[in-house]
Write a structure and sequence with these properties.
Elements (H helix, E strand, L loop, with lengths): L13 H19 L3 E3 H8 L3 H10 L3 E4 L2 E4 L1 H5 L3 E5 L3 E7 L5
Antiparallel strand pairs: 1-5, 2-3, 4-5
Length: 101
């Protein structure tokens, strides 16, 4: 009786490689921005809707609304806010956990 051994090697497709590199990029962004949350996560933590928190940030001068889009201001950056662009999810902001509490 002969013994036959077959080994398999997982080869990543181009699509899964892109997903892995995107996940790594976002993980790096998260580690670089420790203790920061997206606007929606911060709103959820504070028990308000995202739109309400965005309005507060506009009122406080952290964001400004131009042509229907939100832009971070110098005051927003000084408060620890960051603008990020995700290829998968589009533009978003990161904020320190305690901001706007």
């Amino acid at each position: 009786m002969k013994e036959v051994r077959i080994t398999l090697e997982r080869v990543a497709s181009a699509e899964s490689s892109e997903a892995e590199s995107e996940a790594n990029t976002e993980a790096e962004a998260s580690s670089n921005s420790a203790n920061k949350l997206t606007t929606s996560k911060l709103a959820q933590k504070q028990g308000v809707k995202t739109a309400e928190l965005l309005e507060r940030f506009i009122a406080n001068g952290y964001l400004e609304l131009r042509d229907g889009k939100h832009y971070i201001t110098a005051k927003g950056k000084d408060a620890g806010g960051e603008f990020r662009m995700s290829p998968k999810f589009g533009p978003y902001f990161l904020w320190p956990e305690g901001l706007g509490a």
